[in-house]
């Protein structure tokens, strides 16, 4: 889906609330991923979010926003894979305050995924969930966007396109979350890098 198709989709959905929900979610995600390498992307072992990672990477590159270029965390990366496809679960264990973990799971998240997300949250990462109505995953997330399986207006795939496009949009103004994050950084210092 290219930019014109995303624009047409937003126009079609303009009275449904979906464009605003995806933009709000993307704005929060972008505010949490403030430095390059701080956005981790994770999903179930049988549905790693490759597609979403590619779109976020495109938005990062096209809009000069290195902070939204995701690090795709994989369950069992092959040793000979390119470096950007070799990031394993140990990266989740190294997650820290100032980093964002975006979990993309259309189906109910497996127990192992939930445990790893909970560990990353306890360490201090900000958790985002793009889910298909998974109450347990949403319970771990600081921010979530749910696309229920029976949703007739937006597919899970379309929601990913809307979120990635919104993440790449220029900021019109600093919102309350951005101002609070800046204030916290002033008080406590920037996230450890």
Topology at a glance:
Elements: H1 3-12, H2 18-32, E1 39-42, H3 50-62, E2 71-72, H4 90-93, E3 100-105, H5 111-123, E4 126-131, H6 135-140, E5 143-146, H7 156-167, H8 176-188
Parallel strand pairs: 1-2, 1-3, 3-4, 4-5
Helix pairs in contact: 1-7, 2-7, 3-7
Please report the distance between the alpha carbons of the first and last residues. Answer: 34 Å
- Strand arrangement, largest sheet? 2-1-3-4-5
The top-level CATH class is Alpha Beta
Rg over alpha carbons: 16 Å
User: What is the CATH superfamily?
Assistant: Glucose-6-phosphate isomerase like protein, domain 1
Which CATH architecture?
Answer: 3-Layer(aba) Sandwich
Into how many domains do the coordinates divide? 1
Structural class: alpha/beta
Q: What percent of the residues sit in helical stretches (DSSP H or I)?
A: 40-55%
**Number of H/I helices:** 8
Q: Report low-confidence residues grouped into runs of 5 or more.
A: none
The percent range for strand residues is: 5-15%
Total strands: 5
Overall 3D shape: globular
Can you write the helix and strand succession as a string? HHEHEHEHEHEHH
Mean pLDDT: 86
CATH topology type = Rossmann fold
User: Which sheet architecture does the biggest sheet show?
Assistant: 5 strands, parallel
Describe the structure.
With about 190 residues, the chain is of the alpha/beta class. The chain has a single domain, classed as Rossmann fold (3-Layer(aba) Sandwich), CATH 3.40.50. Helices cover about 45% and strands about 10% of the residues. The protein contains eight helices and five strands; from the N terminus they run H-H-E-H-E-H-E-H-E-H-E-H-H. Strands 2-1-3-4-5 form a five-stranded parallel beta sheet, with helices on both faces. Helix 3 links the parallel strand 1 and strand 2. Helix 2 packs across helix 7 and helix 3 runs parallel beside helix 7. The protein is globular.
């Amino acid at each position: 889906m290219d930019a014109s198709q995303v624009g047409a989709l937003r126009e079609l959905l303009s009275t449904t609330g979906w464009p605003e929900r995806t933009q709000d979610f993307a704005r929060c995600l972008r505010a949490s991923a403030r430095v390059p390498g701080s956005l981790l992307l994770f999903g179930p072992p049988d549905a790693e979010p490759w597609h979403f990672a590619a779109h976020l990477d495109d938005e990062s590159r096209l809009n000069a926003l290195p902070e939204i270029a995701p690090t795709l965390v994989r369950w069992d990366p092959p040793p000979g894979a390119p470096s950007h496809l070799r990031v394993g679960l140990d990266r989740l264990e190294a997650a820290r305050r100032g980093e964002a973990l975006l979990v993309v799971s259309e189906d109910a998240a497996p127990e192992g995924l939930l445990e790893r997300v909970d560990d990353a949250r306890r360490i201090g990462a900000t958790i985002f969930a793009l889910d298909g109505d998974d109450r347990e995953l949403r319970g771990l997330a600081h921010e979530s966007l749910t696309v229920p399986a029976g949703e007739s207006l937006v597919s899970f795939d379309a929601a990913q396109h809307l979120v990635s496009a919104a993440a790449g949009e220029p900021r019109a103004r600093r919102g309350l979350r951005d101002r609070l994050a800046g204030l916290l950084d002033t008080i406590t210092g920037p996230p450890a890098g």
